[in-house]
Amino acid sequence: MPRKQAKPTAGAEPADGPIQFLSPDGLLEPDSRLELPPAVDLLALYRDMALVRRLDTEAIALQRQGELGLWPSLRGQEAAQVGAAYALAEQDMVFPTYREHGVAWCRGLDPVSLLGLFRGSTLGGWNPYERRFGLYTLVIGAQTLHAVGYGMGLVRDDVVGSGDDTRDTAVLVFLGDGALSEGETNEAFLWAAAQNLPVVFFCQNNQWAISAPYSVQSRVPVAQRAAGFGFPGVSVDGNDVLACLAATREALTRARSGGGPTLIEAVTYRINAHTTADDATRYRPSAETDEWAAKDPLERLRLHLTASGGVGDTGGVGEEYFADIERREQELAEHLRAGCRALPVPDHASSFENTYADMPAELKRQLAEHSEFLASGFLAAGQEIGATR
Amino acid sequence: MPRKQAKPTAGAEPADGPIQFLSPDGLLEPDSRLELPPAVDLLALYRDMALVRRLDTEAIALQRQGELGLWPSLRGQEAAQVGAAYALAEQDMVFPTYREHGVAWCRGLDPVSLLGLFRGSTLGGWNPYERRFGLYTLVIGAQTLHAVGYGMGLVRDDVVGSGDDTRDTAVLVFLGDGALSEGETNEAFLWAAAQNLPVVFFCQNNQWAISAPYSVQSRVPVAQRAAGFGFPGVSVDGNDVLACLAATREALTRARSGGGPTLIEAVTYRINAHTTADDATRYRPSAETDEWAAKDPLERLRLHLTASGGVGDTGGVGEEYFADIERREQELAEHLRAGCRALPVPDHASSFENTYADMPAELKRQLAEHSEFLASGFLAAGQEIGATR
Amino acid sequence: MSISMVKALNNGLRKALADDPKVLLMGEDIGRLGGVFRVTDGLQKEFGSLRVIDTPLGEAGIVGSAIGLALRGYRPVCEIQFDGFVYPAVNQIISQLAKLRHRSGGVITLPVVIRIPFGGGIGSIEHHSESPEVYFAHTAGLKVVTCSNPQDAYDMIRQAVDDDDPVIFLEPKRHYWTKGEVTDETSTPTPFDRARVLRAGTDATLIAYGPMVPAALEAADAAAEEGRSVEVIDLRSLSPLDLDTVRESVHRTGRALVAHEASLSHGFGAELAARIQQEEFHFLEAPVLRITGYDTPYPPSRLESDWLPGVDRILDALDHSLSY
Amino acid sequence: MSISMVKALNNGLRKALADDPKVLLMGEDIGRLGGVFRVTDGLQKEFGSLRVIDTPLGEAGIVGSAIGLALRGYRPVCEIQFDGFVYPAVNQIISQLAKLRHRSGGVITLPVVIRIPFGGGIGSIEHHSESPEVYFAHTAGLKVVTCSNPQDAYDMIRQAVDDDDPVIFLEPKRHYWTKGEVTDETSTPTPFDRARVLRAGTDATLIAYGPMVPAALEAADAAAEEGRSVEVIDLRSLSPLDLDTVRESVHRTGRALVAHEASLSHGFGAELAARIQQEEFHFLEAPVLRITGYDTPYPPSRLESDWLPGVDRILDALDHSLSY
Ligand SMILES: Cc1ncc(C[n+]2csc(CCOP(=O)(O)OP(=O)(O)O)c2C)c(N)n1
Ligand SMILES: Cc1ncc(C[n+]2csc(CCOP(=O)(O)OP(=O)(O)O)c2C)c(N)n1
Ligand SMILES: [Mg+2]
Ligand SMILES: [Mg+2]
């Protein structure tokens, strides 16, 4: 498959509003505020977005089948996540919320590992050090401070602004529009600013925090928040994978080189309900969802790729490319289904383990008592233990 | 005593930096960014600043004599506090930190009531509803959210933007530069902004949070923080009582009329140590303190008042004015000394009372047990009870 | 009328809003959505968005501004979406809400209710199944109550709103959908700070609250079949503690067991055991036993029915108690 | 060498910083000023401002960023300026710090120490005399320790820094200036999770920790003059609890008393009482008694010596215990 590079077609540029390269019709246009990234593999980008969407769709299906307790869908946010992830260097560290399945995918995590938390078979699911992708954080905003501390560690490790590209490191931390309202998030902003830390805050403003529209949180755009703390804020079309990639790349490069933090607002939309447990029809009109569906991040890139002359000089992309993606999607779906069902139900002892580095005597006693109880005659009647609903 | 009004003398205006009307040399100059308040009783302002300084000096003396456990001095911040307080309408509500003795004074509190908290004879000291002056808040930032809630109440009481000056009400909440870093303060900012609440945040940037210079908290000026949340921020010379008054008056007027919150930064200086328990020589050079002493807020107004032609058309203020202030200061000092020593040592039962609206049975039992213990033979040896240091 | 606990709470809140214009509800997603558990369903529509307030996403802000509202004469009822999200509000709860009456010598009254769906057993992910009651019960100045059935839910939420002290109102989320008869307001409900004997017995006293009450009753039923007479007490109020009711019972039975979901160490049972052993020292025939969650974080949901104390562990403990 | 507890902590932290470049100190005013109690005096000068960090004024930020630093391989020691200011950090402590090892199946190790000067008796204003130990001891995943003398302060702070679990390190501020012999590092200190019998006795066991230990010893002295032999245990570790040492003692003496400053209800003594009455049921000659602060906010300083439990109340309780 040829490595396709983005090259802008001529056209008017938007005067303000979020930075956008790729319009909903698939037209690629420059934007004076940001350089179009020079080396981008559009075909890979599209493929990953498509696979991530499939991952999401499959997880929803698994939830419906009762295999997962819950699933927070990323549908509509593929461009934001894949674009941001493509800007990462291997050594960069990522702190996600609970919705960054697309980033996890691009980081190379086995997608099955994302399911355990929602299946209730684990509280974690992967080794955060292996792919430099932190555990999902459900407490809104909490991870922003972990990112700050990690960034403080990078400074102390002397891997910021050394000039060595393979060493210099940044932190990319994700947050939602709702998370902007937590005190902890704002503390993270000010620590990062005051200490000029290599932390990029990537806020997916998907317009909703469960049922709260963005207007409940703020009357000014997300990116403006950063100025108040003294660091740059930038707003990009979150459904334009190129804009997301370009802005994140610029911010991460600055962060690695010692230029400090950036807040990126990716203006996007949560197409599905908050999670599979939510009913979005109670609080938002379907017209809004329809409007955003027309700005679909995958569709615009597909249009661009298939338009004659749309990608570089090679003309439109052919059917075999899409067929290949479809094949990979099928494989992925099967992998997820099989992997999900095969996720081990943890041993009862695992509830006790790793509470401390070494299990304290009292906890050992509790575990022994519990094991004995489970092994005792009571186990026979043990169907009803616990969940007396 | 004649009611003296501020009238600007001609002169250059500062291009940027904090808004200033009254220079350290006592020259009154206009500032294009803010209108000089039309009706200001400069003599009253100066007198209150002088009395407030004396209050502070006396409290420090009382602490040295062992009558108070601690005292947070306001020295250097008299203009900020008195200026802000003069902008209040009677119906406005004030939420202070622990250093707003000057505001308390202007609100008409008996200054003796300020001493109880620091003498350890009470945890409060006054009725916050009487003079619409909240209790001192020692937990940094906590009061900012109370101000927000109170402002929400005002909106619901329909006393915001009704157009009736005697009814429309605002909240003035004080905070320090250090308080800008607490998550709760930032939540207060965003709630006030998103709901357009009638809350004026008055930040005395006295350059220090105990030993932390402002640069530890932020790399941009205080007032800039507000823009990030979408409301106006303004910076004034905190040692210029007229600038403080004018900016607060403008902000409170806007708030009362439904125009939403404002953040005011009063750039000033904490001349003394953080409290009487602190040793500022450990962390800041005396040269800095000297520099700020030259910008003394009282001195500049005194210079202005005594300069021939300095106040309106009536010429310099005469000796009898200052003699009168001195008399009042003496009275105040005696009142404080006598009042402090006369503050009642609370009854042991008071520790138990008012924990709940009605004392629960268990607490009654504890109180009875405690009273019995105190009345028992053990009381004889009771000198050592408690503080085994 | 047989309704769910959710509906009972909804009715109670509606009544509170209708009775007193100073009552406000505030929290994340409580308006349009009606709360993630629908406890406030329809109330914003009925009372408007100034009285049923969709707040920004910040728990410190919710409780801190509720304090300010109370200072202005309002009676705010805050919803914390899940037990595990109350911690950002702990500073305002412990340092401000609990203390301002005392600090002000009784001048300040803060009739703030903080509703928290709590406990496990519904298959949730982490932070959604916590039992934080002791953090609040240990804090002087707060009242802490919990209901175990729709009638209590209806009565107690109204009593909490009427109360002049700050009340932490814990709702056992796994019983949200349990239905029960709820009679209307003509009845005179038990004061919400009193425990209630749900089942009389003579061999042992089983004390529970909120989520564990149905299991306690079930255990007593099972024990009865084996000829053991277990008295079951629903504490209802965790602070203040209705020790009289507990003592009267244990004094008779000589045996006490306490069940709760929270971790054993420093869980609610510790205080009960400490009280009972002190007050009924000469009358206890067995030590006070505790049937509780373990000293670990709440487990992933596939393990929760294993981890949570249930009927069988209660019966096991009962055997143990009776063996003394 | 006889030094104060402040100096002992200072020496311990200096040693920890010198021994391991990954050790960092962070907190408000800990650098130039050396902390409001001077525990970190001189350390920033010696180790630089990248290792001894003056942080912004935000406790959530301090603990949250300490977690991030630990994720990057550092061993941060946070100072919370006073007990009453730890609450803004409680969300990070309870939901993140305590749980991440468990959540990650043991992959994540967070060797974070949170130092908190705690307790009353120094004439401070409110929020400066709190005893929040139970909030942490009830939270699985945290270790909670406290020292009562300079030698322990020196040893235990180093053990806390070396420990791979998060440690809440409570410093009894009213004994900060108490001097005591401190031997250097050649000694082999008692593991910091073990209690220590400070004084042997046969008639009753008096259990204390941190601020109350000197009063407990004094009370035992006074009792000895009246011919009563009181064994005094300094718990040192509040979580995990060294129950073995407690049981062994109470088993012999048959009587237990617990003293602490925190409020009675759900205070630390509750758990001790619950354990002891269960484990030593047949050996107790009197109920476990608690000598504690009352169920009120901490009083203004003019009342604190009245409110705080002291030698006389301990002796009173001892009489009571022996009267059974
Ligand atoms: C501290 C905290 N409070 C409340 C919640 C409940 N909650 C879960 S997701 C959510 C909305 C988050 O919105 P946003 O930050 O915009 O992220 P999105 O879900 O849109 O990706 C809320 C309120 C939580 N997880 N944590
Ligand atoms: C939540 C909290 N953390 C820490 C403290 C300890 N403390 C008391 S005053 C202070 C500095 C406050 O500085 P600033 O806000 O600038 O007010 P200033 O004292 O200068 O008036 C600190 C850290 C506190 N009172 N509350
Ligand atoms: Mg969102
Ligand atoms: Mg300051």
From TrEMBL, chains C, D:
InterPro entries: THDP-binding (IPR029061), Transketo_C/PFOR_II (IPR009014), Transketolase-like_Pyr-bd (IPR005475), Transketolase_C (IPR033248). Its cofactor is thiamine diphosphate. The keyword Oxidoreductase applies. The keyword Secreted does not apply. Keywords: Oxidoreductase, Thiamine pyrophosphate. Residues 3-178 form the Transketolase-like pyrimidine-binding domain. SMART domains: Transket_pyr (SM00861). Pfam families: Transket_pyr, Transketolase_C. This is Alpha-ketoacid dehydrogenase subunit beta.
